[in-house]
Amino acid sequence: MAKHKTKIPQIIIRRLPVYYKILKQLKSSSKDYVSSQDLAKLTGFSSSLIRKDLSYFGTFGRKSYGYDICCLFNQIGQIMGFDKQKNLIIIGAGHLGRALAYNRGYQERGYNLKAVFDKNSKLIGEKINNLKVRDINDLEKYLGNTPILVAALTIDNNAAQKITDRLIAAGIKAIWNFTNVSLKTPAEVLVEDQIINQGLCHLSCKLKQNDCLEFH
Amino acid sequence: MAKHKTKIPQIIIRRLPVYYKILKQLKSSSKDYVSSQDLAKLTGFSSSLIRKDLSYFGTFGRKSYGYDICCLFNQIGQIMGFDKQKNLIIIGAGHLGRALAYNRGYQERGYNLKAVFDKNSKLIGEKINNLKVRDINDLEKYLGNTPILVAALTIDNNAAQKITDRLIAAGIKAIWNFTNVSLKTPAEVLVEDQIINQGLCHLSCKLKQNDCLEFH
DNA sequence: TTTACTTTGTTAAAAAAATAACATACTTTA
DNA sequence: TAAAGTATGTTATTTTTTTAACAAAGTAAA
């Protein structure tokens, strides 16, 4: 299926989830096929770019028809590795950690949320979406018994690096970082920084450019 | 302060929040100045790119010293319009809406969280971070009395477009969209899609490329 | 004061990304 | 079966973005 052995350009990786999202919506529509032009309207990318992106991975379209929605959806899922199972834990059972625990969308992406940890004894033992909050002191013991690939970090900034070091020592391969700390990790451990306020930054920036911020 | 009248390239807008985040961390360090090389290490961008990005907005550096951390932090905040006040409401008091209600980081970006709405009568009246959850039926009345620029949308997908239409009719200028729906809005209303699982998609994609997904 | 060093801001060059254009292949209709 | 129409996949072109290079300006040390 993979047409290229070379690394997928970051810029394409960033668009894949957008295609995936749109295709998921289209799946529940009455149509079976979608053209690059339709996708252009829905994504805001040009049809040319969309065809080019998709052709990077193979030949999915059907001339004069477009792309089979279901087929393309599955293909893009596979390209992103959603067909492979990945265990996930959440560190930090605060408001954000809790919201992530209730997040739907893990399963279809191949993620299995296995545990939630916190240091606060008041929270330990509480059930969040059917998962018992575990004691952060038991982290190493747990990771020794259960192979976990990814950890979501929703803890205080000042604890972020320390917990990261422990996670790495225990063999975690990737961190979904919701803290405001720039984590130091070895090159082989992936970090995905999720700047929660990024969207607000963009909006503020664009509102300013549109002169929406003058009097209010 | 603004050097250019032309629109800031999207690609630079995307990097501004990263600079902002790093500078905020640096502010609480002992150093007063930071060089583009230091910033390169912290951001992962090249020092050349950083100098170019910053020079797009003006001349902030000091030769052979680098950039005054506090000064640059404030400048970038201003460039993004954080010095202008923006009222914000949250639609949807579920787990995610709740997490957003507790989000710190509004104030320093010039956002004032003014209200939270929900349709669920069990939630209406409840206090979340000192804000009483309001009845979504009162949305128009509220917006008629209070000027609100931005609405965060943390509701079910199937209600998303309907609520969006109401928000737009009531004069909202920007939507921070956490739903999985591609919202249809007039060109002058900004939409910032926050695909909550985007980070997981990227991680899955990269883990796959690093051959971390084979056996597990 | 002079020399060596540092780091910016900017220009030039290279690389990457996006767009436009179009030949090809398939579909539909007559 | 032929003609008209559609939409892909790919190549060529343009545009954007990034990197590299360096002069200019300031600092620090001798």
TrEMBL record, chains A, B:
Write down a Pfam family by its short name.
Answer: Put_DNA-bind_N
Task: Give the residues annotated as coiled coil.
Answer: none
- Residue ranges of DNA binding: 18-57
Concerning InterPro entries, the annotation shows: CoA-bd, NAD(P)-bd_dom_sf, Rex_DNA-bd_C_dom, Tscrpt_rep_Rex, WH-like_DNA-bd_sf, WH_DNA-bd_sf
Q: Name one GO cellular component term.
A: cytoplasm
Task: List, in alphabetical order, the Gene Ontology terms for molecular function in this entry.
Answer: DNA binding; DNA-binding transcription factor activity
Keywords attached to this Swiss-Prot or TrEMBL record, sorted alphabetically, are: Cytoplasm, DNA-binding, NAD, Repressor, Transcription, Transcription regulation
Its domain of life reads Bacteria
Q: Name one GO biological process term.
A: negative regulation of DNA-templated transcription
Binding-site list for NAD(+): G92, A93, G94, H95, L96, G97
Where would I find the CoA-binding domain in this sequence? 81-182
Identify its protein family: Belongs to the transcriptional regulatory Rex family.
Q: What does this protein do?
A: Modulates transcription in response to changes in cellular NADH/NAD(+) redox state.
Q: What do we know about how this protein assembles, alone or with others?
A: Homodimer.
The protein depicted here goes by the name Redox-sensing transcriptional repressor Rex
- Which organism was this protein described from? Halanaerobium salsuginis
